[in-house]
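User: Structure please.
Assistant: Input sequence and predicted structure:
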Amino acid sequence: MLFTEMLEDSFIKNDSMLCVGLDPDPKRFPAVFQNKKDSIFDFCASIVDATFDNVIAYKPQIAYFSANRAEDQLERLINHIKKVAPTVPVILDAKRGDIGATSEQYALEAFERYGADAVTLSPFMGFDSVEPYLRYPGKGVFLLCRTSNPGGDDFQNQRLSQLPGSPYLYEHIAELAQNKWNTNGQLGLVVGATYPREIENVRRVAPGLPLLIPGIGAQGGDAIATVRAARTPRKGAHAVINSSRAILYASSDKDFDIAARDKAIETKNLLNSALNVT
């Protein structure tokens, strides 16, 4: 199944645009996981078990695993997701960006070692840094486009020239992803929830691409405005809206998994409520 087909299937089956980001910070784990071997896997697997029927995707952030020497736990976690929720795609948040043989190795890491269904990339080094990932049939690629951090303005929100009507860099990235670069039909874009107006601009330039949108919840993005900006006239999985810390750490007590489920359902329903708002 193509990545975009997996998204559509998960969207319909779980009636959800919510992506749960798996950013495990052992210092914030409930007491039962403290100083425990394989605590990262155990904690994240518990979150997955509690939420998998209410999400469109999971997004493990590779830095949280590698910084804790837990790459093997990441492999196990993705395998666990595929067992308990085989229709829910896994987006590896790696933000890689390199060329040639190095890019080929990063693609092998994401899709063969970890078995991810999609990966996030930086497009800064151009198409030849993206192309090795597109060789994998059916695998998804999300390009950083208009990110939620303030420093994104330094490059992404600059115009390509001083000519009237010149596009912003993020609009140029969106146009390339919608057209010339989308050689396998599985490209998407990362656009932060903190910039709803820019989400509208990206959607105008790239009406056919899935948008991965971080920034709601702990980062303060407006969920309703995000959905309204990202939606398209067609029904379907047009937006993958991520929340990480607000769900993972909804409680620090032994009921952490119940609290995570409750928060996931609350967020899912909030996002869905915006679909029909005019």
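The domain at 3-150+176-273 is CATH 3.20.20.70 (TIM Barrel).
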